[in-house]
Design a protein that fits this description.
- With about 150 residues, this protein is an alpha+beta fold.
- Helix content is about 45%, strand content about 10%.
- The strands form two sheets. The protein has a two-stranded antiparallel sheet. It has a two-stranded antiparallel sheet with strand order 3-4.
- Strand 1 and strand 2 form a beta hairpin.
- Helix 2 crosses helix 3.
- It is elongated.
């Protein structure tokens, strides 16, 4: 149906309003999320929402992780909603990624201390005090390992 403004000016509707364009700084990633190939194509009717699709297909994938020493670990990731595809959703399912996240946070805390703690920086600049600090840290590590 045509819409007319005051004075009979034609206002054309924009047909692309229903589709949101993917921003230029985004990447669309398509991946097979099950290890099983379909035996034969099937038509599934009645799936009304995205949640219905996830509930019907139950996508999951086995992922191989490798640590810094080259040891491999395999984990199964399941996807029950769109939020499971984000960093938090994937990390919540993986003990390997949770450990890496904790390690990353610890490194960030150390960097913050090195940047903001003047006394620590002075201690590390002096070779003698640095050696003393390392000695204390090694003693603490040894004590912690003995109490396990």
């Amino acid at each position: 149906m045509q819409e007319y403004g005051i004075g009979g000016t034609e206002v054309k509707g924009d047909a692309s309003e229903a589709f949101a364009e993917i921003p230029q700084n985004r990447t669309l990633l398509c991946e097979k999320l099950t290890g099983d190939a379909p035996i034969k194509p099937q038509i599934v009717e009645g799936l009304q929402t995205i949640d219905d699709v996830f509930e019907h297909y139950k996508p999951e994938i086995e992922v191989d992780f490798e640590d810094s020493e080259g040891a491999g670990k395999q984990e199964k990731l399941s996807f029950r909603g769109l939020s499971d595809f984000g960093i938090k959703g994937i990390t919540a399912q993986s003990s390997f990624l949770q450990d890496l996240t904790i390690e990353k946070e610890q490194y960030q805390k150390i960097i913050k201390q090195l940047k903001s703690n003047k006394l620590l920086r002075k201690t590390l600049e002096n070779p003698e005090s640095k050696a003393d600090l390392l000695g204390v840290m090694y003693a603490l590590i040894k004590e912690l390992e003995e109490t396990r």
